[in-house]
Every structure is written in C-alpha cells, then in structure tokens.
Amino acid sequence: MTGGTGCVGRATVARLLAAGHAVRGVWRGRSPESLGFAAAGALEWVRAELAVDDVAPLVKGCDAVVHLAALVHRAEVHDPAAYRRENLATTERLHGAAIAAGIQPGRFAFASTVAVYGRDFDLHADESTPTQPRSPYGESKLAAERVVLERGGVALRLPITHGPGDRGNFATLVRAIERGRFALPGPCEEPRSLLSAANAAHGFALAIEQAAAAQLFLLTDDDDRSVRFLARQIAAALAESGRPTTPLRELPYALVWPAAALGSALGRVGLRSPVTLAALRKLTTPLTFSCKKAVRTLGYVPVETFEVAVRKTVASLVSA
C-alpha cells in the first residue's frame, strides 16, 4: 500500500490488519516510527520514491495493491508536468508492475478525487456525472483513473477526507475555529459531503477483497451536513479536548461578498487573500456526492459516524 503514513493510509493499514491481511506499507516523508506506527507482526514498511525507484520489488509477493500516494493540490505547485509525473506516470508504472507480478486486475485500487468534476460548489454528482477538471491535479488524477479502469483496476473518488493525521482543508478549518479566525458568511445551511478516513479505509478494503474489476466508485460518509453544523461540531470537539473556543460568529452575506470580490481581484494581480469568491461559494453552496453504487455493489456501509469522526480528527490535531 502506497501513502501508508497519510491520513487515509493509516486508517487503511489498521483496517487491513484487523481483517487478517499482511500489509507492506510504502512511505516517504515522515517515517512511520516518528508517527508511532512502527513495523510489527504482519506490518512491514518500505521507503520508496515511486516516481524514480524500481517499483517491482514493492509489489513482489503481494496479492493486492492500494495506491493512495499522490501529489495533492497545493497552491505553491503550478507545474502540470509535476502532477503528471507524480500522479499519472507513477500510477502507470505501479499498475504495470502489479500486472507483471500476477496480481488480479480488480485487486488494484486507486485513490481518485472529486476534483475530476472541475467544480467545488453547487454540485451533486455520482459516477455518471460528466468530468471537466480545471486544475493540473484534477487532470492528472482523471488521466490516471482512466488508465486504471482500462486495465481492469478499481478507482474510488474521494471528497474532502479527514481523520487522525489530516493536514488538508479540514485541518485548516479546525485551526481557524480554534484560533477564533473563522466566521460563518451567512446561514451556511447547504449540505456538503465528507468522508472519514475510517470509512475510506473500509471502502478500499471492500474493493480489493471483492476484486471489483474495472469499476468506479464514489465514497462518502453517506451523511451530508452543513458547514454550520460542521463548525459547531468542531467547536464542541475542541472544547472536549480542553481547547474551548470563542462563540462562532456569523457575518451577513451581503457584507462578506464585497470583501470576497476584492480578495478575488487581488488574487488576479498576484496578491493572496483568505477571503475570495471561490472560498465564499464553498461555504455557502451545496456540494454533495452519491455513494449509492458502492452501497449497492460493494455492500459499503459507513463504519464511523460523522460525530465520532470529527471528535477523533480534532483530538489528533490538538495533540499533534
């Protein structure tokens, strides 16, 4: 399994070990030992740079591959070639090595993303919704997804995912609320789909255990919640962890919109602002995804509730 020390990776390692599988985790960056995740028993760790190292030894003796490692969307990385190298070429090489090692096509599970749709606001999507990625990250993931599916593998599209070890958008929101730097721009009652790391891990395990060849799935918590509800849950979890926050503030949308428009204008001339029209849309419009196909085909049922997942994520961030 690649990306084994990441947020979803840690949960997937735990899920597979609990099911009786032996796991070879591939990592780069922070070592598993530094994260309290040392090799033991049926778990071994191998350090590798997937873009340049020989990947054949990584899959030797394995009967399945879960490919989570990726160059994720980052504001400081603009080079499309970097995303193609890390996300497309690496996936092609790893999948080719898996096939050469005799691994069944349906036992190669690839972590894709809802960024392939090209919209992060005012959208409800399922696997049949047209894709139109608008970032090098989304483009590279869609290209890799197509390679995997054409070769008989399985691809799972993930929305915003959170859990212990999270360093993405969810963690950013937690830190903003903790520091009193977050305000709701209006009611913020529109639904959003999220995915806990534990539920993602469950989905990946089901996919490889059932060898869902040439299948594409969306995974979610199957429990859409509003940004307002999410912010309140985070604040409550922070209080439980000994980090009480100031009461959540709500600003009139009519006041926030001009500031967001100004922030977007500044961005067009190279100046960054945390308040933009794009950020405002993410908080005030619906963004939901259907996991009905995974439920129907894989028997996927979330194993962790939204509330429990939020508490675990917040607790891990507070203790980090």
Q: What is the topology?
A:
Layout: H1 7-18, E1 23-27, E2 43-47, H2 56-59, E3 65-67, H3 80-100, E4 108-113, E5 123-125, H4 136-150, E6 154-158, E7 161-162, H5 169-178, E8 183-185, E9 191-192, E10 195-196, H6 197-209, E11 215-218, E12 225-226, H7 227-240, E13 249-251, H8 253-268, H9 277-284, E14 287-289, H10 292-298, H11 306-319
Parallel strand pairs: 1-2, 3-4, 4-6, 5-14, 6-11, 7-10, 8-13
Antiparallel strand pairs: 9-12
Helix pairs in contact: 1-6, 3-4, 5-7, 7-11, 8-9
Question: Top keywords for this entry?
Answer:
320 residues, alpha/beta, Rossmann fold, 4-stranded parallel sheet, two-stranded parallel ribbon, globular, NAD-dependent epimerase/dehydratase family protein, NAD(P)-bd_dom_sf, aldehyde dehydrogenase (NAD+) activity, NAD(P)-dependent_oxidoreduct, Epimerase_deHydtase
Shape descriptor: globular
- CATH homologous superfamily name of the domain at 7-174 and 191-223 and 290-303? NAD(P)-binding Rossmann-like Domain
| Low-confidence segments | none
How is the biggest beta sheet arranged?
4 strands, parallel
The strand line-up of the biggest sheet is: 3-4-6-11
**CATH topology annotation of the domain at 7-174 and 191-223 and 290-303:** Rossmann fold
- What Rg, in angstroms, do the CA atoms define? 20 Å
Structural class, by secondary structure, is alpha/beta
- Roughly what is the average pLDDT, rounded to an integer? 93
State the CATH architecture of the domain at 7-174 and 191-223 and 290-303. 3-Layer(aba) Sandwich
**Helical amount among residues, as a percent range?**
40-55%
CATH class categorisation of the domain at 7-174 and 191-223 and 290-303: Alpha Beta
Proportion of residues in β-strands: 15-25%
String of helices and strands: HEEHEHEEHEEHEEEHEEHEHHEHH
Straight-line distance between termini = 24 Å
Number of E-type strands: 14
The number of helical runs is: 11
